[in-house]
Amino acid sequence: MAFANSENPNSPSRPEEAHQPVATPASTLLLGIADAAGNVVYVSSELLAFTGLTLQQIATEWAAQVHPDDVARTAAQWQQALAARQAYQIEFRFRRFDGQYRWVRSMGYPQLNEHNQVQQWVINMVDVEQLRQSHSESIGSWADFNSLAELIPQLVWTTDATGFHTYFNQRWTDFTGYTLADSVGPDMWNNLLHPDDRARARQVWGHSLATGDFYEIEYRFKSRQNDYRWFLGQAVPVRNEAGEIIKWFGTCTDIHDQKMQELALRKREQDFMTLANAIPQLAWMADETGAIVWYNDRWFRFTGTTHEEMMGWGWQKVMHPDRVDEITNGWKQALLDGEKWEDTFPLRRHDGEFRWFLSRALPVRDEEGRIVRWCGTNTDVTEQKQLQEQLERAYSDLEAKVIFRTLDLEREVQELRQRIGE
Fold first, then answer.
1. What are the tens digits of pLDDT across the range 300-338?
2. What are phi and psi of 216, to 5 degrees?
3. Are the C-beta atoms of 40 and 1 separated by less than 8 Å?
């Protein structure tokens, strides 16, 4: 819920269109829904009755209902939850329809779409003062909690303070095929995990139980069709007035499609790295500005440099000092032109020897034709360069010999003419 500036929070007056106050039972959950940006778009009739306000007033005057001493703390935690896309729990004083501030416990849970983006937030509050007066440790009536749990698209579960599962919603049953009686207990959920995920899940969950830290993990759950799907598991502890954990509230969000895309992308990256490190050339990639962002392993083995040394324009360090300005200017011109770049120059090897390389780079463009990166290679042509130089020297030698022989012939011809003429 967004905290906006509004009227004086101490003012008891309300517009005439506000709902008339009615008493709400201690066990009733005060439910609200906010969009991905945190703007209130729905509140339950119980919350309208508790505040005596309309939906529009709650959406625009939310901060005014929070006790002045609690506004900053509550707003900060809400913004933190929005940024992290994580469930939260907080207690603060909230003004009731009669102007009295009541301590409420608010818990919010993000609902994610198939792209792992927040669609909306489901937020509930309960008057904890009435709960404490009745010595209740529940977060509301079971009917209200169950309604909330069935409203969100995740698999919902609760445990006691020790991690013993006490509840699963209907979505859990629909997905796993296990009834509540089959599922409750300390470790039944782990048996439904992929064997490769069980030890890690047990370790992460054990850490949260021991420390009270927010629980978050990605793992694969087996469906009733006996296939596995990836889920994001999250849980927050519920504490009593003494700060002691009395239960855990958790959700499992289906992220299978996103995970498959992520794994496929990772596989393509691994295949690319394998290919890039297998080719005999030194390979590299630059961003649209020409700064190098990646080299293959062969580059580092040849130059004897490190990743940190070579990023950006660090490659100038292994250029021959007599050529570095010329090469840099040629590369910058290619960046301006957006055309293929090619040059031949020496690179210093790790032992200090310079070897000749044919270097080429091509621009990679997006769908709109903008250059997003450059891909380049350096091919060792030292032997070819040496052979070319040998051939050029041999040709020069041959050419000189031909010239000298020609001169000799001309001299002999002149001598012959002189003898004949005599």
1. 999 999 988 999 999 999 999 999 999 999 999 999 999
2. -155, 135
3. yes
First to last CA, the chain: 121
- Beta bridge partners, 354, equal 348
Q: Is the CB of residue 180 less than 8 Å from the CB of residue 173?
A: yes
Residue 14 tokens read as 């309300």
Contacts of 196 (CB under 8 A, 6+ apart): 220
pTM reported for the whole predicted model: 0.46
The strands making up 354-365's β-sheet, listed across from edge to edge, are 292-295, 282-287, 371-380, 354-365, 341-348
Task: Report which DSSP code applies to 214.
Answer: P
Distance CA 234, CA 216 (A): 4
Higher pLDDT, 268 or 245: 245
pLDDT of residue 148: 61
Name the average pLDDT for the chain: 79
Residue 177 Rama label (left phi>0; alpha psi -120 to 50; beta): left
Hey, CA dihedral for 146, 148, 150, 156, is it positive or negative? negative
DSSP helix/strand/coil, 393:
helix
pLDDT at 26 over 70: no
Measured between alpha carbons, how far is 373 from 362 in angstroms, rounded to an integer?
9
User: What b/e readout covers 375-408, taking b as 16+ CB neighbours within 10 angstroms?
Assistant: ebbbebbeeebeeeeeeeeeeeeeeeeeeeeeee
